[in-house]
Amino acid sequence: MKTIAVIPARFGSTRFPGKPLALIHGKTMIEHVYQRVKSAALIDNVIVATDHPEIYEEVQTFGGSVMITRDNHESGSDRIAEVAEKIEGDIFINIQGDEPLIHPDLIDEIVSLAKKSPESVITAKVKIENEEDIINPNVVKVVEGQDQNALYFSRSPIPYKRTQENTAYYKHLGIYCYPKQILMDFIKMPKSRLEEIEMLEQLRLIENGYNIKVIQTTFDAVGVDVPGDIQKVEELLGGFVR
Known about the structure:
Blueprint (H helix, E strand, L loop, with lengths): L2 E7 L13 E2 L2 E2 H10 L6 E6 L2 H9 L4 E3 L7 H11 L4 E4 L9 H13 L4 E7 L3 H5 L5 E4 L5 E5 L15 E10 H9 L4 H6 L3 H6 L4 E5 L12 H9 L5
Parallel strand pairs: 1-4, 1-6, 4-5, 7-11
Antiparallel strand pairs: 2-3, 6-10, 7-10, 8-9
GO cellular component, one term: membrane
Pfam family, one: CTP_transf_3
Family: Belongs to the KdsB family.
């Protein structure tokens, strides 16, 4: 099964315009992400999908594969679907373009399960260790059933703890692995009720009866949301081991 990793890279971030071109230890963020993904063993091809000529030129400069996509996509999944319509592939994995510390082993874990579960979307979770993250609405939580299929994603703490016993909470990592047909189906669906309430597009799949399998990993995501996050990533980058 041919597996394509697509990195959506939008220029017009409200909190951090031009974010993919921000320098981290002298290299642009999009190059850091691209090289991380490229080193995953189970990826056949990596493509940056962007709406901006400067990002396009930067990816070409460091020798990466890049495609110009429309500038009116509402989500990264929509941008990935445009790429999937134009190239051959069986599995398309959405890699966030603002996570320069994405770990290749996490990508391989997800792709490995995707090849065994061609009827499901695959994503990942990591145990929340910081209690503040449990109540932080920017940290999306996930719960799943015994079959590893997600039951719900929420910005609120789930499950609700009524007793004092220890309860583990898990952060959803924004990485998705789609079988091509499910990706094509997904972008044709109207926004769902719960999706609009929580502002989480993955709920559209659940509301329409699709399975999202969730793997647990130890590789936490460290995203860049604002310029101040660059220093934090630079400090962590030196500790990365393949």
